[in-house]
Specification:
single chain; Beta-Lactamase; alpha+beta; 5 strands; 2 domains; Arc Repressor Mutant, subunit A; 5-stranded antiparallel sheet
């Protein structure tokens, strides 16, 4: 039965005309498979993550409970997640109730784990989804299963639903790597235009002429794009936009 639902989901996302329709279809599919909430993240460059915080280097979107986001702070949600570095290193599946995850954990990671346990977020799995052909744009997803109350219950649940969840998450990942990159980073068409012209080497005056805008307006578009992309410079913004498939110069 669930195989047919996967086929239906694939057809639905293939025909999704907007990022919101695509995202909602994936949310519904995961919910029907027993997922209480999930978080999808992508880090364009692993080296960037090692020099900076995960929240500054990458992008994260979630459907976890409001209390979790409020307690951790929206701007730094992934920073103390002990599974993220494991995803970067290519560990395929990490189960949240595995006690060994806390071996060598920092005080901040321990505090976040305690908070999540208090919110009922004890059982779940983090999956490494993949990277592009250059080993960039590393992605992963955390799946919270809120309706199980013991290790045995979770193991039984995962044996029944694990393969289905892996395939749904691959559909989600493929969509965000493809036509629905805006689900993760919503650049405006004009911001995309500006970065695309920078990527092919046009000077500011040439970009302004092509787009019929002033240099002040150009700088405003670049500044907002940099902010959305968590970029330090315009070249950094272009690099991130390229690897995330947000622009195609």
């Amino acid at each position: 039965m669930w195989h047919q639902k996967l086929l239906d989901l694939s057809a639905e996302v293939a025909n999704a005309e907007t990022d919101e329709v695509f995202w909602n279809a994936c949310c519904r599919a995961l919910g029907e498979a027993g997922i209480t909430g999930f978080g999808f993240g992508m880090i364009p460059y692993a080296t960037d993550a090692r020099f900076s915080s995960f929240s500054k280097a990458g992008f994260f979107k979630h459907t976890y409970c409001r209390e979790w986001a409020s307690a951790l702070g929206e701007g730094s949600l992934p920073d103390n997640d002990s599974t993220i570095e494991m995803v970067i290193d290519g560990v395929p599946e990490i189960f949240w109730h595995d006690a060994s995850l806390l071996d060598g954990a920092s005080s901040s990671q321990l505090a976040q784990t305690e908070l999540e346990n208090d919110l009922g977020m004890r059982f779940g799995a983090t999956l490494a989804l993949g990277a592009n052909s250059m080993g960039q744009a590393i992605s992963g997803v955390g799946l919270w299963v809120g309706d199980v109350v013991s290790d045995d219950d979770f193991d039984t649940y995962w044996q029944e639903h694990g393969e289905r969840l892996r395939q749904i998450c691959q559909i989600l990942d493929a969509g965000i790597r493809g036509p629905h990159a805006g689900s993760l980073v919503a650049l405006t068409p004009r911001e995309q235009d500006c970065l695309s012209y920078i990527a092919i080497g046009l000077r500011p005056a040439e970009i302004c002429w092509h787009l019929a805008i002033s240099e002040k307006t150009l700088e405003k578009h670049i500044m907002t794009a940099k902010s959305k992309l968590g970029a330090k410079t315009r070249d950094h913004a272009v690099a991130k936009a390229l690897v995330l498939n947000l622009i195609q110069p």
